[in-house]
Amino acid sequence: AFIIDLDSDTADKFIQLFGTKGAKRVLCPIPYPESPTRFINCEQVLGLNLMNRGNYYWEVELIDGWVSIGVIAEDFDPREAYNHGRLGRNDRSCCLQWNGQNYVAWFGGFECTIQQPFFHTIGVFLEYSEKALTFYGVKDSKMTCLQQLKVSSSAKGKLDPFQNKINRQFASLFSCKLKPAFFLESVDAHLQIGPLKKDCVSVLKRR
């Protein structure tokens, strides 16, 4: 299990933090001190934690609104313009987005819509050495795989633009140290880094 603390020095001025675990998008800007790591064009915030070896698992509670959960390269420029700076709209980050109707996986500006119902809790499993990131819907200690981002040698990658993009560039993301990343897209977006369901950790250990 991986304990994530949100980094207030990265939080966009329209994100209010609740301790180190909660984040909510607000309408009135918060007068955070200037910081070279602060997002200024996207309502995003990062975890303090660096990931560069082994496996990591964390869970996020989607409380309200449109929320994206993912990872980003440590050296990503937080001053990037909105269109390119959002999670998954560049080659330096990827995410799972809830857009009010569907889950959508994003990487490098390519998207993949996922046909699954809403889950209040999302589990994120990063296997750094395997160069894989898997998103799970978690409910009643059951884990439903929503999407795995990983290079695949199957024929699907040649036909599917999203998997083709993964095959071409996803592995290079793992040449960087990665950080947990969160995008609060809608004005009511609200998330909480959740306490882990112990059963899920044991399930992952068996895999």
UniProtKB/TrEMBL annotation:
Pfam families: SPRY
Occurrences of domain B30.2/SPRY (ranges): 1-200
InterPro entries: B30.2/SPRY (IPR001870), B30.2/SPRY_sf (IPR043136), ConA-like_dom_sf (IPR013320), E3_ubiq-ligase_TRIM/RNF (IPR051051), SPRY_dom (IPR003877)
Keyword vocabulary terms for this entry: Metal-binding, Zinc, Zinc-finger
Protein origin, superkingdom: Eukaryota
GO molecular function: zinc ion binding
Gene3D superfamilies, A to Z: 2.60.120.920
Record PANTHER family: B-BOX DOMAIN CONTAINING, TRIPARTITE MOTIF-CONTAINING PROTEIN 47
Name of the protein described by the UniProt record: TRI47 protein
Organism: Oxylabes madagascariensis
